[in-house]
Amino acid sequence: HRVSIRLRVQLRILRFPKFSISIVSHLSSEPLVPIEAFASQSPSTRLAIDTVRTLSMDAVQAAESGHPGTPMSLAPLAYVLYTRHMRHDPSAPNWIDRDRFVLSAGHASMLQYSALFLSGYPLTLDDIKQFRQWGSKTPGHPEHGHTVGIETTTGPLGQGVANAVGMAVAEAHLAARFNREGHDVINHHTYFIAGDGCLMEGISHEAASFAGKFKLNKLIGFFDSNNITIDAKAEVSSTDDAGARFLAYGWHVLHVSDINDLDKLDEAINSAKLVKDKPSMIIISTLIGFGSPNRENTSKAHGEALGKDEVLLTKAAYGWPSTEPFFVPEEAVSDWKHGVAARAATHAQWQPRWDAYAKAHPDLAAELERQLSGKLKDGWEKLIPSFDAKSGNVASRAASGAVLNAIAPLLPELIGGSADLAGSTLTTVKSEGFFSAATPELRNFHFGVREHAMGAIMNGMALHGGIIPYGGTFLVFSDYMRPAIRLAALMKQQVIYVFTHDSIGLGEDGPTHQPIEQLTALRCIPGLTVLRPGDADEVAEAWRVAVLHKDGPVAMALTRQKLAYNNAPDKAKAGVPRGAYVLLEAEGGEADVVLLASGSEVEIAVAARLLLAAQGIKARVVSCPSLELFAKQDAAYKSSVLLSGVARVAIEAAHPMSWYQWVGDFGAVIGLDHFGASAPYQTLYREFGITAEHMAEAAKRVLNA
Predict the structure, then answer these.
(1) What global pTM score does this model have?
(2) What distance in Å separates the CA atoms of residue 505 and residue 190, rounded to the nearest whole number?
(3) Residue 241 and residue 253 in contact, taking contact as beta carbons nearer than 8 Å
(4) Which one of 360, 490, 585, 605 has the largest count of C-beta atoms within 10 Å of its C-beta?
(5) Is 451 a residue of the active site?
(6) CB of 431 closer than 8 Å to CB of 599
(7) How many CB atoms lie within 10 A of CB 524?
(8) Beta bridge partners of 414
(9) pLDDT tens-digit readout, 541-558
(10) Quick check: 13 pLDDT over 50?
(11) Which residue in the list 206, 310, 441, 451 is annotated as catalytic?
């Protein structure tokens, strides 16, 4: 009759909390929390761990929203990491050689918030009480830049796994470039926690495969193996052998059967740190909602508050000394602070090493500090190439490759590659080799056919610091990268996407490879700057914008086919950073119509201007490489370009949705609201009406209307 016993305990808690605890341990023939589970925990340590559990329960209960079960089960791991293993300093949260921690299972955010609060980061108990509330420092999922101590924004499952891989990549690269014998100033680990959902998402496969291939030994992951998802037991949808899976990726795999056995956790983590030729995955068996009499090991513990009564019962099961919500024992705080102080001492020990390094290798130290600060080398912009009618008559992807290779020598922080498409995206720095386990100092990357992971790995590289990552693939495959692009924008990270084959202009590959809706879809992402340059000069300026843009990601959309050269380098230099500019004025007076275009359709607008001129219609041509940058301009500039009260026609070989706000109520947009076809690109442009003749006719219709 355990139910009746628990009911009596609950009532007694209100008056005699200490007595009620003894009743649970003596009357229950099946202890809710087995005593042997705490064999390796001192009383103060157990209090310290249970404080994470109770704060998580209370915060979710107060918000009546959240995920209490995972923080309850993972509390021992958070305690062990923050107090015994991670090199971190709450007084210097951005110390470059700190260990990184990524909670890929971001729904368990209260685990991390509790750990940060107890560790002494600038997070208060009041912040914990405001979990998931307006303006709080404790949003539903961890957000980088919003809460000190959060290394990346997580929530979409699996993204954090790939972010952690990117951080480990950055550590390996910078360590290889800057460390010298006797001077290891970059030497830290990246830890992440993943759950069943993270490993079900395909991105975790791509990221883990990449990490194993490149032997990222400073990467240590923890798989919270609780066999629970929101809907049911995980086994109803997945029976993967996670250990075998990671062994197949080339990881070192360890198992811990009970997360409450702190000695075993320590042993596993120490073992992982000793591995020098592969990343490690520690698989930990846990019970979600640990200690909850009615919710432990159930899906209900995953995604909803326990309920006030169940919170009281669970605290009784822990032997918790108070029934008050958000009670934090002084002994628990002292225990956490003592352990964290020892970890923070690693920062103090590192500083003399840095001083010795800076003295022995002043040039290297200055260069590392420059890259970490985000300051660019003087003179890099002078390396941006100039084009003329001969050299500029190329596909914009070819111009992009030329610009990248020209500026690379003075931008060693510019690091990247492609998703197995380097020959098409032209994203290889030809003067350097490829990053590998043996040559981590090199800057070209073989990301493999892994667009999902490539985007998130680049985010991790940017978040680590000291690197400006870029990655290339076909524009149509930006769909695979969209979650990572969205998170880069949310986190305002400087990441550069080189998307080629940007329209039906790629031709014979057909509709599966021809992007139609992708430009509009990317332009819908807040904080993402999309650049679709119209000729080689605009490509050069697009790269300038991308390298200088520190407040979010930039996506370049580039052509496969050759483009006409506009022969307006000065206009491009001034106009591209403003998003749109007047490429050609109307002949013979004030314009009757304004023709707007981006990318490969700029030359179509130029040809349409001539057709209209022959019919006595004066047309201005406006090149619009970036609608986002143009939208940021003041009203006076926008009016000077678009000419208030003048008819407008826009053309782009993509979905027209992006353009309606710019042509006004009586303008026209020529685009594609259907898929393409397999044929030479000239045929496709003609058959689909993306032509100068069609644009001229549209202009006349608008004027007549």
Answers:
(1) 0.94
(2) 43
(3) no
(4) 605
(5) yes
(6) no
(7) 12
(8) 468
(9) 999 999 999 999 999 999
(10) no
(11) 451
